[in-house]
Design brief:
alpha+beta; Thiol Ester Dehydrase, Chain A; elongated
Length: about 150
């Protein structure tokens, strides 16, 4: 399914994304390496055993990217002009390798673009949960969305 055009969204519209993803150690290692993040909390199991987490935790930027990425097929695939920003990004609980994540999206607000008559701005609230239904991430994402062509 492709993404929706600006006019097809409505404030309060909710998406429970079917795609779930079990996060692996390789995901965490590769993402951390690709983004040049050498933090011990993502890479050093021995160090992390002595912390409050007890084990390596997944890079939170991976959690953010996965949370938004999972939403794309249902919401914005092929209809986004640009992401305008992420606000209120939160990670209330850590993600560990082996956790299985799911995502929900709600349309929080909408407005027509003042500078582009072919577009509107949609603010999405994405929330990510682990297999125990604990919230592990959330954010507001503002997207510049295509409008349907006017005949």
């Amino acid at each position: 399914m492709g993404g929706l055009y600006y006019e097809e969204f409505g404030v309060g519209m909710r998406f429970e994304h079917v795609l779930r993803r079990t996060v692996t150690e390789s995901d965490n290692l590769l993402f951390s390496a690709l983004t040049h993040n050498p933090a011990a909390l993502h890479l050093d199991e021995e160090y992390m055993r002595g912390t409050e987490f007890g084990s390596r935790i997944v890079n939170s930027c991976f959690t953010l990217a996965l949370m938004v990425g999972v939403s794309v097929a249902d919401t914005t695939l092929g209809t986004t002009i640009a992401n305008l920003g992420w606000d209120e990004v939160r990670f209330p609980r850590p993600v560990y390798p082996g956790d299985t994540l799911r995502t929900e999206t709600v349309v929080h607000e909408m407005r027509e673009s003042r500078s582009r008559p072919d577009a509107g701005i949609v603010v999405f609230v994405h929330r990510c949960f682990n297999q125990r239904n604990e919230e592990v991430g959330s954010c507001k994402r503002s997207a510049l969305m295509k409008r349907k062509a006017v005949a």
